[in-house]
Design goal:
Chain B: Its EC number is 6.1.1.20. The structure holds two protein chains of two kinds. By secondary structure, chain A is α+β, with helices and mostly antiparallel strands. Chain A contains 21 helices and 43 strands. Chain A has six domains: 2-38 and 162-189, 2-Layer Sandwich (Phenylalanyl-tRNA Synthetase, Chain B, domain 1), CATH 3.30.56; 43-156, Beta Barrel (OB fold (Dihydrolipoamide Acetyltransferase, E2P)); 202-404, Phenylalanyl-tRNA Synthetase, Chain B, domain 3, CATH 3.50.40.10; 412-480, 2-Layer Sandwich (Phenylalanyl-tRNA Synthetase, Chain B, domain 1); 497-703, 2-Layer Sandwich (BirA Bifunctional Protein, domain 2), CATH 3.30.930; 720-807, Ferrodoxin-fold anticodon-binding domain (Alpha-Beta Plaits). Chain B contains twelve helices and nine strands. Classes of the chains: A alpha+beta, B alpha+beta. The interface between A and B is large, with 93 and 85 residues. The structure holds zinc ion. Zinc ion (ZN) is lined by residues 265, 267-268, 272-273, 275-276 of chain B.
């Protein structure tokens, strides 16, 4: 809502500047987003009288004018506007004047003729082109003939005004009109309120002799009223009205249309003027449109209507889409003499349906949608009729021809002083509460502590006590509410074990050198399931949003990896090629085609790594990212979580992954994720360098119950370390050997670690050598050589039996 | 004899003084103090001396021996020290060469902001509550006093999956779920961070996915003034001790009264600058007293219990705090962006 500061003065005394007013309104609950000065830096523009206007001797399109500026001598001004003529009163920028954009007017010579000033168009004075009345859109603006020569033109044009743009929340539709804003401002400033006084002299004729009104859709249209105004002369509306419309962002058209718009802005009541003589009947019938019914609207577009839309008809044909737009056939034209003025209450839902389907949003439709004060219909109709009588020469026929209930009853809400103070934390006195309710112009009764408030129909947002608490509080002033501190006895806050563990995982990941990424959950259907590691993930349905913004953001992801590869790609395209990132986010799985219950949500921890893992150039160190770097990161994580002994890595071929360099990660032999190099084909599709990824079900990892830590006594006896090197088949996994070593080593074997892998040329074809360092220890005593030898030989024997391993010589 | 000893002493000390390496010292030691050395020779002649002279000369001989031994030791130490110093000198390095880098990543700036806010509220006795990102219409809207066809639903154009299931547009459904779990018994004191989704075109200030943090307190006798206290504590911790806060009445369907909180501009201190759009105030969050309908729907007696709620956008806070000009940076994850938040 755009509120003219000058216009508002009609209703409320304003002894403060527009900026101060804006500040007070904002603090009291309606945010003033912008205070716009209509004067865009203009000085030196006065009213001039064109005394003489002749063709420029050397230029077809220019005229030479003698203009009286109220000074001793008239000045000569060369003007290019086609509509300039002798006798006109016009805005003139004098020599030395400044126009918007810091455009300074200087003495000039145009094609040999002196020009001492400039006759201005409205756009040259800073008015938006789309708001300039059509007759002046390609020329200078012509002012009323009574404008005083030499006086400040800005005041005539209301360009000394300020416009406050209100950012209205949905509950404050009452401020979508000047009277509503006036009620609000009067309450805030504790000032008197002057409402327009409307007096209509009616002719001897009766409106009901001209028209009958029937409503066939009472739920959509609870009230319809029609007035008849005869002997209208269509002409421009008065300048003050045009100025106010322009300030509110509406282009002036003619007196009748301007008056309906003016009253809309003033009362918030949409009105429509039909050309009575072109209505085609003496009847108004409001009904739902028929499916496929057509009509041509004011904008000359043919509209296809349906049963969801409400139309005004002449008994047969639609003449308007209710609350949205009138029809072309009954539009007010220059030769219109009799106007049928519609003042109706249409339900917001019905108006919204048509406005949405037809793609037409107007000042009227948006007000119906947000809700108007039904009890103002009558006042607004009479206000418009009286203005038509005054400014269009109209004669108003007596009465309003109506259908439905015009008045609705006012609601009640109750609140107590205790409730107000206990909710706000204040100590507002009873007299203060009464004074505030009076300022708001709410009628009320006091019964004991209880305020029984009659809520005016302009404020349907007030229904319960809390609403009244807010009204009292905001007028009282939120800056006067004290600051108090909650104290909570013996209830410490804290993270849940899951939340604490998740933070620990993040810190660990950061410590390994990975940066945390956050990416979008919506992706393409293909990417949403591009990476999987368990059969369970393959038996799910994709979850698409019903109205995606784009295919790229249409489906909820079941894996984080594609978005992380997207991040690698973004960086790669900027020559950032050493990247390690991780993300902890939700993934979504639907177990049914069409969701009837919420989908399953799991938290995944995923990562993507490419380029160099470590680099220290001047010492010649360079380590590329590889499978074992990533695996090492994960092993470290499992140790952090106390899960290392329950985790296994198994080679597996997975979609999008390198078949020989990918492992599924199992927790207690259940798949919990995977790690590996992305397939060279995938890498190419994504336009990446060699890259590694991992994805882990974090809920599964953090959900695993972990034994509490118990201190292990430090060794009191020496341990014995022996190495063992064996030759085995080349494709035997080292992990299998390790498992057997531990089985065979028994109680005494405490640690085994692989320290050498040899597959070189000194090795028999198809064989490799692996060397382990084995540590034996008994916490109770010193081990003897014989015992260790026995255990060691047992290990070697088992390896021979299980894998055909031979001791390396 | 004493003169002879005296001469030997001086001779030895001179040689020690002149020795330039350990080898030379060893030679001195052998030649003067050895069994065949001159001092021993001299002492062999002691038998010729009178019994009175003998102890005097013996003592003097020992004195000479000790002097030479001690000179030798200190010279050895001196030479050893020189050797060490020479070695260390050769080992010296250019300490201005760059060190071996240690890989160290960091949290995403949004996580950093969220954790900072969480930690602050944890100290005030809050717990962190989380909930699903895909929600039912009931928890996302209806339980928050937003029945179907409520005009305020226009404010949040949502990603629906079915007629009844959608991507949550706010983290408030976590409040509704948490209150429900309390079965009408307070106190409730939670903070709920998380991702939310709205049908917005992505640009410098809009994102179809973003973060939110909301807080909720439901207890007996909770007042708007208590909300003011909590928010003031938050504003000072987050944006500096000298911040002032301002509450303005506003509208949210799930609170009544509703407020918007501004903080005094941390850039210009309230004089007006581009960050605060020359108002001296920066809008930080929305809040209010929990609407009685919301309390009742969650099973609380709104006559007995009151509460407050507040909600804010970590992106906005991070953008203000670090001067970030484009919300898309948070989701593009350019490494040059992410690396800037090491100390966040
Ligand atoms: Zn500032």
């Amino acid at each position: 809502m755009l509120v003219s500061y000058n216009w508002l003065k009609d209703y409320v005394n304003l002894d403060l500047s527009a900026a101060e007013l804006a500040d007070k309104i904002t603090k009291s609950g309606i945010e003033v987003e912008i205070v716009e000065s209509l004067n865009k830096g203009i000085t030196g523009v006065v009213v001039g009288h064109v005394l003489e206007c002749v063709q420029h001797p050397n230029a077809d399109k220019l005229r030479v004018c003698k203009v009286d500026l109220g000074e001793e001598e008239p000045v000569q001004i060369v003007c290019g506007a086609p509509n300039v003529a002798a006798g006109q009163k016009v805005p003139v920028a004098k020599v030395g004047a400044v126009l918007p954009g810091n455009f300074k007017i200087k003495k000039a010579k145009l094609r040999g003729e002196a020009s001492n000033g400039m006759i201005c168009s409205l756009t040259e004075l800073g008015v938006e082109a789309k708001l300039v009345p059509k007759e002046y859109s390609s020329g200078i603006f012509v002012m009323p003939s009574d404008a005083e020569i030499g006086s400040d033109a800005l005041a005539y044009l209301n360009l000394d005004d300020y416009v406050l743009e209100l950012g209205l929340t949905p509950n404050r539709a009452d401020c979508l009109n000047m009277l509503g804003v006036a009620y609000e401002v009067a309450a805030i400033l504790d000032e008197e309120l002057r409402l327009p006084e409307v007096q209509v002299e009616t002719s001897g004729e009766r409106a009901s002799d001209y028209v009958s009104v029937t409503v066939d859709a009472k739920e959509d249209n609870p009230y319809y009223g029609a007035m008849i105004i005869k002997n209208i002369t269509i002409a421009p509306s008065p300048l003050w009205m045009q100025n106010r419309l322009i300030a509110a962002g509406i282009r002036p058209i003619n007196n009748v249309v301007d008056i309906t718009n003016y009253v809309l802005l003033e009362y918030g009541q949409p009105l429509h003027a039909f050309d009575y003589d072109r209505l085609g009947s003496k009847e108004i019938l409001v009904r739902r449109a028929k499916d496929g019914e057509e009509m041509v609207t004011l904008d000359d577009a043919k509209r296809k209507l349906g049963a969801n839309h409400l139309v005004i008809t002449n008994g047969e044909e639609p003449v308007a889409v209710a609350g949205v737009m009138g029809g072309a056939t009954s539009e007010v034209q220059d030769n219109t003499t009799t106007v049928l003025l519609e003042a109706a209450y249409f339900e917001g839902i019905r108006v919204r349906a048509a406005s949405k389907d037809l793609g037409l949003r107007s000042e009227a439709s948006s007000r119906y949608e947000k809700g108007i004060d039904r009890n103002r219909v009558y006042d607004a109709a009479y206000r418009a009729a009286s203005l038509m009588a005054e400014y269009a020469g109209g004669e108003v026929a007596e009465g309003i021809v109506e259908a439905g209930e015009r008045l609705v009853s006012e609601g009640k809400a109750e609140v107590t002083k205790t409730r107000i103070n206990s909710l706000l934390g204040t100590e507002i006195e009873a007299e203060q509460i009464s004074a505030i309710l009076k300022r708001l112009r709410f009628e009320f009764d006091v019964q004991g502590e209880n305020y029984i408030v009659t809520v005016p129909t302009r404020r349907p947002d007030i229904t319960i006590d809390a609403d009244l608490v807010e009204e009292v509080g905001r007028i009282y002033g939120y800056d006067r509410i004290p600051t108090t501190y909650l104290f909570s006895e013996g209830r410490p806050g804290g993270l849940t074990p899951y939340q604490a563990a998740r933070r620990k995982v993040m810190r660990y990941m950061e410590g390994t050198g990975l940066y945390q990424a956050v990416t979008y959950a919506l992706t393409t259907p293909e990417k949403s399931t591009a990476f999987t590691f368990s059969e369970e993930q393959e038996n799910v349905h994709s979850i698409k949003v019903s109205h995606p913004m784009s295919e790229e953001r249409s489906t909820l992801r079941g894996t984080l990896i594609p978005q992380l590869l997207e991040v690698l790609k973004h960086n790669h395209h900027r020559s950032i090629d050493d990247v390690g990132i991780f993300e902890i986010s939700s993934v979504f799985f639907a177990h049914e085609q069409s969701l009837s219950v919420l989908p399953e949500e799991k938290t995944y921890l995923s990562g993507a790594l490419t380029g160099l893992w470590s680099i220290h150039p001047w010492q010649g160190e360079k380590k590329k990212m590889d499978f074992f770097v990533v695996k090492g990161i994960l092993e470290g994580l499992f140790e952090e979580l106390g899960l290392q002994s329950r985790i296994s890595f198994e080679s597996k071929s997975l979609p999008g992954m390198h078949p020989g360099r990918t492992a599924v990660v199992k927790l207690d032999s259940i798949a919990a994720g995977f790690v590996g190099q992305i397939h060279p084909g995938t890498q190419k599709d994504w336009d990446l360098n060699e890259s590694y990824v991992f994805e882990l079900n974090l809920d599964q990892l953090l959900g695993a119950s972990v034994e509490p830590t118990i201190y292990q006594t430090l060794p009191r006896f020496p341990s014995i370390t022996r190495d063992i090197a064996v030759v085995v088949d080349k494709n035997l996994p080292a992990g299998d050997l390790n498992t057997v070593i531990h089985e065979a080593g028994g109680q005494l074997l405490k640690e085994s670690s692989l320290f050498d892998l040899y597959e070189g040329e000194r090795m028999e074809e198809g064989k490799k050598s692996l060397a382990f360092s084995l540590k034996y220890y008994d916490p109770e005593r010193t081990l003897t050589d014989e015992e260790v030898t026995k255990a060691h030989e047992n290990i070697l024997r088992s390896l021979e039996e299980r894998f055909g391993a031979s001791l390396r010589k | 004899m004493q003169d002879r000893l005296q001469a030997l002493k001086e001779e030895a000390l001179l040689k020690i003084e002149q020795a330039s390496d350990l080898k030379a010292l060893q030679d001195v030691k052998v030649s003067y103090l050895g069994k065949k050395g001159p001092i021993t020779e001299v002492l062999k002649g002691m038998g010729k001396l009178s019994p009175e002279e003998r102890p005097v000369v013996g003592a003097y001989a020992n004195e000479v021996r000790d002097a030479i031994t001690s000179a030798l030791e200190s010279k050895v130490a001196e030479l050893e020290q020189a050797v060490i110093e020479e070695k260390l000198k050769k080992e010296s390095i250019d300490v201005t060469l760059p060190g071996r880098p240690v890989r160290q990543g960091n949290a995403h700036p949004l996580t950093a902001v969220i954790e900072e806010i969480e930690d602050l509220f944890l100290t005030m006795g809050f717990t962190v509550a989380e909930g699903p990102e895909v929600e039912t219409d009931y928890y996302n809207f209806e339980a928050l006093n937003l029945p179907k066809d409520h005009p305020a639903r226009d404010m949040q154009d949502s990603f629906f999956i079915t007629e009844d299931i959608l991507l949550r547009t706010q983290t408030s459904p976590v409040q509704a779920r948490t209150m429900e779990k309390h079965h009408g018994r307070g106190p409730v004191k939670i903070i709920s961070p998380g991702k939310v989704y709205r049908r917005d075109d992505d640009d410098a200030t809009h994102s179809h996915q973003f973060m939110q943090i909301e807080g909720l307190v439901v207890e007996e006798n909770v007042r708007l003034s208590d909300l003011k206290g909590v928010l003031e504590t938050f504003a000072k911790k987050m944006f500096g001790e000298d911040r002032k806060i301002r509450l303005r009445p506003s509208f949210f369907p799930f609170t009544e009264p509703s407020v918007e909180m501004d903080i005094s501009c941390f850039k210009c201190g309230g004089k007006g600058c581009s960050i605060c759009k020359h108002t001296g105030w920066i809008e930080i969050l929305g809040a209010g007293m929990v609407h009685p309908n919301v309390l009742e729907m969650a099973g609380f007696d709104s006559k007995k219990y009151t509460g407050f709620a507040f909600g804010m956008g970590p992106e906005r806070i991070a953008m203000l705090k670090y001067g970030i000009d484009d919300i898309r940076h948070f989701y593009t994850n350019d490494l040059r962006f992410l690396k800037q938040f090491k100390k966040a």
